[in-house]
Amino acid sequence: MNLYHLRYFVTLAQLEHYGKTAEKLKITQPGLSHAIASLEEELGVKLFEKEGRNVVLNKYGKMFYNDASKIISMLDISVNSFQNISEGGGNISLSIIKPLAIKDIPKVAHDFLDINKDKEIDFKFYTGVTKDIVEGLKSGIYDIGFCSKMENETEVEFVPIKKQEMCAVVPYDHPLAKYKELNLKDTIPYKQIIFSKSSGLRPVIDGLFEKIGEYPKVSYEVEEDSLIVGLIAQNFGIAILPKMYSIQYINVKAIPIIKPDWESYFYIARMKNRYHSPAADSFFKYVCEKGL
Questions:
Q1: Residue range 135-163: average pLDDT?
Q2: 12 by DSSP, 3-state: which?
Q3: CA 288 → CA 266, 273, 279, 284, distances in Å?
Q4: Residue 263 CB burial class (10 angstroms; 0-12, 13-18, ≥19)
Q5: Residue range 155-164: average pLDDT?
Q6: Percentage of residues in the chain with pLDDT exceeding 90?
Q7: Where does 90-163+265-290 sit in CATH, by number?
Q8: What CATH number was assigned to the domain covering residues 3-87?
Q9: Which residues form a coiled coil (predicted)?
Q10: Vertex 178: Cα angle to 175 and 183 (nearest 5)
Q11: Mean per-residue pLDDT for 139-159?
Q12: Is residue 249 scored above 70 in pLDDT?
């Protein structure tokens, strides 16, 4: 039994005429007759009865038709879906770290859809920390990640797309809140909330403190930046964080760090030696070229 035979059977059951069915399927009538006979032989039962020049399903043919028509319908839906993917459509699964999730990635995704209106593209959005995003890329859950760079992940392609602006985030009634910019050394006397070691930003911030040869007293280690900001607003400490769009809506102040000199970026990431759909590949290249 093969899928051609199933399709021939379903079409014959619908048209009830060998000649019309052969014409629709663009095969010879003897070829159609042979296929139906082979199918009946394999199943061990007759499927059709003659009615004049037509044929109709018998009891067993009707039973088989219910299953065969479902199989053909499911196959057609699947084939159409993959044809859409091959033509640049389909789903693109993104996982995003919080600093980029509120404004940057929604905007670039909207812009990409706007210039690809002729394609049926749909995004699936997820958020997470860098470690989990990279694990999701490796396990095939996500097509593309927006995260920090993990130096030991040699199978992952990281491309810088936006420079990180580091700030000291403090409550409005904090002694540092009166300043417009700060040296990192100015933050040392105050208890700080830092990212946990699972965060991709932890090495960046540790590197900043290494540059000045000092490290603050740590009050809490937290994985999520949104929780860090919430703790700051309630006077649990201050923190060194990337500038985030959401900070302006919370009762904290973000003060740019101007010293020490440093360079750090947000990255777009995907697996190096793995097949990427045309849509995912196109979006990756679009973001790399456009940036954020």
A1: 95
A2: helix
A3: 12, 18, 14, 6
A4: exposed
A5: 95
A6: 85
A7: 3.40.190.10
A8: 1.10.10.10
A9: none
A10: 80
A11: 95
A12: no
Length of the chain: 292
Hey, where are the domains in the chain?
3-87, 90-163+265-290, 166-259
Token match 């927006």: residue?
146
At 159, phi and psi to the nearest 5? -125, 125
Residue 246 has pLDDT above 70, yes or no: no
What is the average pLDDT across 167-180? 96
| The model scores a pTM over 0.85 | no
Strands (E), 12-75: 48-51, 54-57
Do 90-163+265-290 and 166-259 have matching folds? Answer: yes
Strand ranges in the chain using DSSP code E only, listed in sequence order: 48-51, 54-57, 90-96, 121-127, 144-147, 156-163, 166-171, 182-183, 192-195, 218-222, 239-242, 252-259, 265-271
Q: What token pair was written down for 172?
A: 């409005």
Please write the tens of the pLDDT for every residue from 179-227.
Answer: 999 999 999 999 999 999 888 788 889 999 999 999 999 999 998 888 9
